Amino acid sequence: MSVILSVKSGTKKFGRKLVLDSVDIELPTGRITGLLGPNGAGKTTILNTVMGLYRLDSGEIHICGEAIGYKSKRLISYLPDTNHLFSWMRVSDAIHYYSDMFPDFDAVRAKELCTLLEIDERSRTQSLSKGELERVLIMLAFSRKVRLYLLDEPLGGIDPLSRKKIIKTIFAQLDSESTILISTHLVKDVETLLDDVLFLNKGKVIFADSADHIREDRGQSIEDCYMEVFENV
Amino acid sequence: MFKLLKWDLINFLQKYYLLYIGYAIFLALAAVFPANMGAASTAASILCGFFIAGFYFLTGFLAVTVTIGWTRRTSYPLAASLSASPRKILLSKLIMSGIILTSSFYLTLIYKLVYDRLQDVLSGSAFIPNAGNFGYVPAVFIYSIIFMFSYLAAQSNRLTRILPEISAIVISGLMYDAVYFITTGLFLGNRIPWISGTSVSLIGDNLSGQSMIYCILITSVILVGLFFAGCSLYEKHFERST
Fold it and tell me: Which of A69, A78, A87 is facing B81, going by the closest CB pair?
């Protein structure tokens, strides 16, 4: 298995506050990894740094062996935790935009996902509910064929029915060539999805293991393991 | 590049289409009310005068802010996820700035032609741009490039990132003056301001054709240099404030 994302000794400060403290991450292909931790642990900062929105003070990030830069962005599909679409856009405009701007965007796949996720393409993105918007963003992110999918809180505030559909979509997207990194504090919601977990606290990776190992050898669910690790911090 | 520009243009028009609809309405108003129709003409003239003055200054402001406004919006993560080179992205913003300024020039000119028919009833209380004011187009465009660089520089440094807008205004003010002094003082050695306030004077009594070429060349080199320096900052150091 080749490595898709590699973060080495990633350190980042905002002012005097240390938000990433020598973070080391390696994500192999064909895996779904959960970046789990409480609010303010540094999850979004890691994703934003991989996207180049923030710069590391020290350390290195490589995507498929390439140092991050504008060229490496072609390998990443990013779903931020906010609505990043232009405020005037309808869903159809967003599809058109992605179609124009991302050469790997598959318009046919987008139509299929719209049907599967029950998205009305004529809807204005500003008027969508949280769950509807999240489904639109998932549709856009997964209509691209890339190596690395970065999902920031994709299930936050979503009703169980939408959650089920989104999880189904995430599962369907994974193949041996790509990797999905999901950042969330809703551990129970992503329990069934994950192959690997990284627990992040105060900018440090405090625990990393495979989901199978946690379930079989430790005899715990990921949520139980999460509770145990964080209670002992 | 063309797709970037296409979406920048669509995005701009979606946001500011009311400004252009307003322009069309006030243009129609100026055309419909002929001169010497009494109070109606005077009222229309004053209203139109205020609107076009606002239009003139607002488009100038938008031409400058369009170069950096996209980094401040909630849609920035979308723009930042594109795998386009910084050179293409920033060039597209500068072209947008040029489009806004040029359209402003022609639209204000058209308005002026229509409005001149009503000039004799103008109360004189509202500002109406005349041909002398159109020199602001190259001056504002030059300032747009300098401001874009200044903002990118401000957002690329930990200290200035705390107050990026103010830092950018200060840096761009200093740089605009520096460009002025380099072009006039160093190369021309004349007393005629090359960039004067909000307008540009290219022709002066004691400017030879050769020194004018030097002046344009050196300014172009400085601006191109600032553009590429801005691209490098955006690629390697730029970070939006948290």
Answer: A78
